[in-house]
Batch of 4 targets.
Target 1
Amino acid sequence: MKNKDEINESNPESFESAMEQLETLVSRMESGELSLEESLKAFEKGVQLTRFCQDQLQKAELKVQELNSKGEFIHIDQENEP
């Protein structure tokens, strides 16, 4: 079993696992216990995870737009309602 403090080099299996990995990285970086090299490695992994999450969100948004255009899904923008 891997030590939870180690930076996970594998690709995330899901959006949720990527977010969990990001939260762990941020906590470790904020702790100030990482060396410069470890911090740079953590930052690089964080950028990769962020890109993965952005890609997943973009795919979800495209799916919602596709369903919306087919009339199968109605999007309600609660933020802009009077």
Note: The radius of gyration is 18 Å.
Target 2
Amino acid sequence: MMECQSCGMPMENPEDHADADVTSEFCHYCIVKGEFVVKDAASMKDHMVEMYMQQMGISRDAAAEKAEAMLKQLRRWQ
């Protein structure tokens, strides 16, 4: 299973990929109509921190550490 190389979201189904293109390494949340929705790493980190806090019930500091670690693994932010 591929992961989005912008946000790390698992892409299990064709519709999870940008434009339903299974060769795309980015998800349909990160690219809309051929454009990246989030333009910089700092904004992506902020988004990921909020998502991790909400979905995992972890502290802001723990979420920030997790987001930083994830961003370092994703090709878009290297």
Note: The chain has one domain: 2-77.
Target 3
Amino acid sequence: MMSLRRSLLVLLSAATLLGVPACSQIKVHTVYDRSVDFSAFKTWSWATDEGMLINDGSLNPRIYNESNEKLIRQAVERELGQRGMANKPVGDEEAQLVLFFTVTTEKMVEVGGLGTNPYNLQWSEDVASRQQTKGTLTIGVFDRSTRKQVWSGWGSRPLTPGEEPKPVIDMAVAKLFEDFPPKQ
């Protein structure tokens, strides 16, 4: 048991030293229309110049703000630019793809101290709960000519109070576009 604890401590220490918190990994999912030839797309635009942050109603100013909106747009523009795709102005007919994004948050409560046996839960005086916010970024991609959504990606992770948004947004967007355009 002691060697397992020591191994976990070494692993967590290494993750901290590398600047990658153990709980910071983003879980990403993507879906796309397999009948679409993504290699044909060379241009894109945003669906609108207006703010796109659709929320859950909490309007937490640390999450839903103009600065984060700009950071998301910049990260998407950078990722698509690295893939050789040209960003066109909103409404430009030359834009083959049209993109949007949303950000949502969800409160989670983690309860500990109820025992470890799933068949015989036991109460403990050491019961503790912790509230956390999970953030989800969703990006949708539409084919302008068919007006159909051809790709969607979303990623979620717990958010840490006081965390700088730029590295989190950059990581999330990079991870979402890791396999974009899809290879068929």
Note: The helical segments are 2-17, 66-82, 165-176.
Target 4
Amino acid sequence: MKSLAMFGVAALVASSASAAFTGFSVDRAITAEGNTQYKIYANWNQSNAVMLNAFNFTQLSGALNARHQDAGEDPDGNPLASWSAGVNLLGTAARNNDSWVTVSGSGTSGGHDTALDPSFVYPPGSTDRSYIPHNAGWYEASPGTPNVVQAGGAQGGYRMMLLQIVRSGSGDDPIATFGFTVGWKVANTTTALFGGTGQVITIGVPAPGAIALLGLAGLAARRRRG
């Protein structure tokens, strides 16, 4: 019986260390205010993954065209645009129509806070945080409270939202691609693990003309094979 019990403990330990990052996913929706909202998630195959940071953001093609709706104002009284979720204190509707980064899935300043890297300004040396510069990152500002991934998503498994991009209106929605690296760990361990490097995240919907051209290209290819 003792040996069986020890076997059970060993199996539990092996299971707890086997969580794996499985890639990114994107949810697209139109908000009640008529804007286009993208939520970008990192995904794992077990629930014991803890988010640490996201870094090495790289814009690959297109433009994010991100909409900001923050509580602050600049010296001229204009809305202050920032990717910091903590500055948006205007309530749920404002957060749903604002663009921000997170390592906890939260768009508020409460709970498990998210901080922006010092390099998260553009141009360098300024205080402008409305643009995500090359190699920028964001991280867990209160590591004493782990950001454990939660179940959810059509793909199954477990996930954490890391980025929300909102575009004004629901019409023009050009394609943009980007990527970044995720830093995480298994709960109750101290070893940092990494995923997502080299993976491409895509937002946007092809214009009708582009879809038609893709259809014609596919039809031509089928005819050639025939």
Note: Residues 208-225 form the longest helix (18 residues).
